Amino acid sequence: MRQHAARDPDTLHRHLHDVQLLLSRQRLVEGLVHRQSMAHQDLVESLVHKQHEAALGRKLERLHPADIAWILEALPFTERLLVWDLVKADKDGEILLEVSDAVRGTLIATMDRAELRAAAATLDADELADLAPSLPTGLMQEVLADLDNEERQQVHAALSYPEDTVGALMDFDMVTVREDVTLEVVLRYLRRFNALPDHTDKIFVVDRGERLRGILTLESLLISDPDTEVAAVMQGESVITFAPQDDAGSAAKAFDRYDLVSVPVLDGARRVIGRLTVADMVDYMREESEAEILGHAGLREEEDIFAPVIRSVKNRWAWLAVNLFTAFVASRVIGLFEGSIERLVALAALMPIVAGIGGNAGNQTITMIVRAIAMGQVEPSALRRLLGKELGVALINGIVCGGGVGVLAWTLYGNAGLGLVMTAAMTLNLLLAATAGVLIPLIRQRFGKDPALGSSVLITAITDSGGFFIFLGLATLFLL
Amino acid sequence: MRQHAARDPDTLHRHLHDVQLLLSRQRLVEGLVHRQSMAHQDLVESLVHKQHEAALGRKLERLHPADIAWILEALPFTERLLVWDLVKADKDGEILLEVSDAVRGTLIATMDRAELRAAAATLDADELADLAPSLPTGLMQEVLADLDNEERQQVHAALSYPEDTVGALMDFDMVTVREDVTLEVVLRYLRRFNALPDHTDKIFVVDRGERLRGILTLESLLISDPDTEVAAVMQGESVITFAPQDDAGSAAKAFDRYDLVSVPVLDGARRVIGRLTVADMVDYMREESEAEILGHAGLREEEDIFAPVIRSVKNRWAWLAVNLFTAFVASRVIGLFEGSIERLVALAALMPIVAGIGGNAGNQTITMIVRAIAMGQVEPSALRRLLGKELGVALINGIVCGGGVGVLAWTLYGNAGLGLVMTAAMTLNLLLAATAGVLIPLIRQRFGKDPALGSSVLITAITDSGGFFIFLGLATLFLL
């Protein structure tokens, strides 16, 4: 909506290339300055340098803060800081909000306290609260000291709610009116504003104690006769509202389900204390889905792709350590049967098939159950039915898949017993995978844990160790 | 915003339990009727039955279509159809739009053509186009015949754009005005509407040929002097617009980046042909992230959790088949070294560690690269830098992780050479994983393919077979 927003990736890439071109010219100039250090040359080069810098500055001035944030993320470290220096200070705050956490750190590290205070001064209370965790210690106190009393309270309020609650995401911009005035009065009142809060699709109707009486949509305001009283056209009953301690995920689902744009946030006494908008919810949904996808690969956070290697190692370590442990356990399970493998070495070649297919099928089951839980559609009472269904799927897959693999093993090694053991082990491991895939998330849910977290590691650990144990155990019993 | 929307999961669950309670009472009555078939009893029971049915109907009448959709998804097959029969016909269309594809099929299968035509008649052109693929063949022709000419063209237009384009997601509801009238005239014009299109945050300013001249936000309309002309307060330049063939994913990013609520869709001659709203984008984002998460586990679509086993088997087969093939290849790689394993059986116990850690690390790399590509921040020119970084991470992990595992293997088997081979194999397999993790998505991207699709299978296949080959190969060379 603002000027020069780049609506598609092509335009964004063009902007990025422009910036890179200007940067490379500047680097060229810097190179020249280094090589030819005669006084008069210096002057010329420094003028040319200034020219390029000015061109880059003008380019940046025309870009939307969200686009500059994107470009900063796409630039390697030195170029990023060069561009960041050239960005007009009044955009700093908004850009810091837009960049990813990883990149925000690199930008803030280059700013002194005065710059950071100036950047903070351009932000609203709710935005300040978002930025607070990234600021150097002590600075937030100085920033708070710059605010008026109401804003300071708002920042404190926003910071007091846990992450992932409505209170942490709400903003404090809103328009309120009384119910006993006419729409004409409301229209005249609005004309005294210089701007309305972003995403104003409704006006909150409150009483003298700031308690919500209803909502007046801009639609009603615009299509109704101006002589009508607010009370006559406002929605009073069954208005959707949130409490600040409500879960942000549930709020996002409500926005999705009922196509909301803005929703009032009420305290225990039904006083309007803030507002949640669809823009907050879109951000939240994107971050959640990113976290979920990164989590599947055991990554804790989004990485700055140009971050130093050591930071990336830290981000990836936790999961690898867990995996190392589970792999070691699986390895010890195999160790139990080393005697059997020595006598029938085909077991070594076949065992990864049993474990691998089990892990795959288990991941499918657990993904399905975790999603159904997230949609709120699975209750512990549905356990038997779900388990029955997943065991049915596992049985069919075991007989078909396992049967095929069994025939293959028989053909390869000319050992019908080996084929039979393979089929039986595949089927049993798939049944184990289905059971664990249903039970793990449901048990985690019952104990109030996030059913998704680490579910993939757990199921793979079970199907690996379990698969090796079942296959090698059956082989030891029946073949040796 | 509509009546009786359930804003949180608790309320939704209460609704679900109410429905289940009413259903169970009804079942009880049906049971009685079956057992005691005396004429006068029949009458009484059938009255009681009717009473419960009526109570359930009243309950459903008060619920938002999106909530009924959720309840239908959460109910097993027979209960679902019972409830579906009781839903008032005028809600049928909206509910069909809200339920998942899997559940929609089960509902449509119970409706006759007349019911489906009636349901379709309650929908807008863009909604009809969404429903079209689920309708029985031929019915769409009848539905189209019921429409007026303009609507029919709109449906055809919406159907003519490929899935995942702006054209397939846009709606056709909008308010347009001319630029040479005053805001007072616009305000009077709006008062003639009974309702504004959902998510109207701006009015499109067009010339006589329906070409976009600018946009008038409701904000400007409300805060400006009514005597002002539209042209004076409208945004004319650098308004964000889409073309119908634009990619829906890029549009969603633009909504996210610039906090948009509604955007005009223009044809080649800048005529306004439709409108995209944030509600469409929220739906799109949710579906995309679901598809991505399901895709990670190799599931093609969301499953109706109460679907028959055979449907689930089909949904899960494709991936298992691929996995079966890659597992078989890995098994044959091991087969090459059966002689070595016979001579040193510890190799069989240790080899899954090498393969497993490699797969894990490879998945981390590929997830990171795929996300960076999706954000548009990786270009082929960044290849060398990315590869360098990932190889660095792999080397550190290989030396640390692999070193630890090497010491462990040495301690367990009292064989220092085995420990060294283990460390070397882990490091090499991690380097292989890093290389493949960077190259696979970049190569797929260069050939215009989706870099994410099946990336996890591919990388695991490489690190499994590669890991076995490297470890067993090194062991054969140096230990035997």
Automatic annotation (TrEMBL), chains A, B:
Keywords: CBS domain, Cell membrane, Magnesium, Membrane, Metal-binding, Transmembrane, Transmembrane helix, Transport
Pfam families: CBS (PF00571), MgtE (PF01769), MgtE_N (PF03448)
Superkingdom field: Bacteria
Transmembrane segments: 317-337, 349-370, 391-413, 419-443, 455-479
Gene Ontology CC annotation, any one: plasma membrane
GO MF annotations in UniProt: magnesium ion transmembrane transporter activity; metal ion binding
Domain CBS: 170-233, 234-292
CDD domains: CBS_pair_Mg_transporter
Bilayer disposition of the protein: Multi-pass membrane protein
Location in or out of the cell: Cell membrane; Membrane
Function: Acts as a magnesium transporter.
Family assignment from sequence similarity: Belongs to the SLC41A transporter family.
Subunit architecture: Homodimer.
Protein's name according to its UniProt entry: Magnesium transporter MgtE
Native source organism of the sequence: Thioflavicoccus mobilis 8321
